[in-house]
Amino acid sequence: MAQYSTESRFPFKRPRRMRANDFSRRLMAENKVSADDLIYPVFVLEGENKTEAVASMPGVERKSLDNLLVELQEVVSLGIPAVALFPVIDSAKKSLMAEEAFNADGLVQKTVAAIKAQFPELGVITDVALDPYTSHGQDGIIDEDGYVVNDITTEVLVKQAVSHAEAGADIVAPSDMMDGRIGAIREALEEKGFVNTKILSYSAKYASAFYGPFRDAVGSAGNLGKADKKTYQMDPANGDEAFHEMALDLNEGADMLMVKPGMPYLDVIYRAKQNFKVPVMAYQVSGEYAMLKAASANGWIDEKKCVLEAMVGFKRAGTDAVLTYYAKDVARWLKE
Ligand code: PBG
């Protein structure tokens, strides 16, 4: 690695020389954030003309489709390439077998079709996981002990992913962490002729406490109660395990890898990019957003500077795109 001796040659070597001027700092900047690096997550509600704030995520709103389409006009004009869609499902439609997940007339399916009709160029990413649809808030089907049963869950996930593709989703993003689901989904998509539907696999999804505000936003926190997701999401202590997961998902047909959460897992992002040389995305999750918002609201940090620093940090680590609740703000700040 080190081509040069670390023996100090001061004053011949002065690293500050290059930092002394704005022009030289610009010339040597290794990374740059652009609107092309952003994915904007949105929460969709049933009904009409509804917009609701999410208490633990100031600035994030849950909207009915009509109001969402108005916001997407802004997302498109800001140059953001894609949105990730998360549904808020009425509790009456939640069940043990999560049948609503693959309803052709379901909220996600209707929303995807409407977005693609109005904004054909905007990439639409759908979440493949059952937590919005299960009465217990787990990402899959459970047995009598509450254990999420892998293969039965995968069958439902396949139906869900195919229904998203049929509605027009560009990218399906399994975030459930079942074994073998990427291969099963890929096979079904191929069979149905969806050869260009991309799979963004949440290969390295950790059992994180930083998801708290999201579970409030989609209303799964109450259903989940005190239960956790540790039998399928990964232990935050593990790095190598993520590479096993990623290798499997790539072999099964994933096009992109997602690391989630983001900021506490930059090492995983770095190693993913170094190892696999495939598109790597990061999810700056709800708890990360909430921390930045809360500190900014208190005047403890400079929101714009801290968020842009976090974004360039993601790039430096090797991220190709960042899914962030700050996407619109970042795109706006970059234009200033
Ligand atoms: C689950 C899912 C989660 C998030 C998005 N989809 C996590 C979970 O509840 O386990 C979290 C996103 C965030 O915190 O911003 N399929």
UniProtKB/TrEMBL annotation:
Keywords: Heme biosynthesis, Lyase, Magnesium, Metal-binding, Porphyrin biosynthesis. Mg(2+) binds at E245. GO terms for biological process: protoporphyrinogen IX biosynthetic process. GO terms for molecular function: porphobilinogen synthase activity; zinc ion binding. Pathway: Porphyrin-containing compound metabolism; protoporphyrin-IX biosynthesis; coproporphyrinogen-III from 5-aminolevulinate: step 1/4. The keyword Kinase does not apply. Its EC number is 4.2.1.24. Coiled coil: none annotated. The active site is at K205 (schiff-base intermediate with substrate), K260 (schiff-base intermediate with substrate). SMART domains: ALAD (SM01004). Gene3D superfamilies: Aldolase class I. It catalyses: 2 5-aminolevulinate = porphobilinogen + 2 H2O + H(+). One of its GO terms (cellular component) is cytosol. It is an enzyme of class 4 (lyase). PANTHER family: DELTA-AMINOLEVULINIC ACID DEHYDRATASE. Belongs to the ALAD family. Homooctamer. This is Delta-aminolevulinic acid dehydratase. It comes from Aliikangiella marina. The gene is hemB.
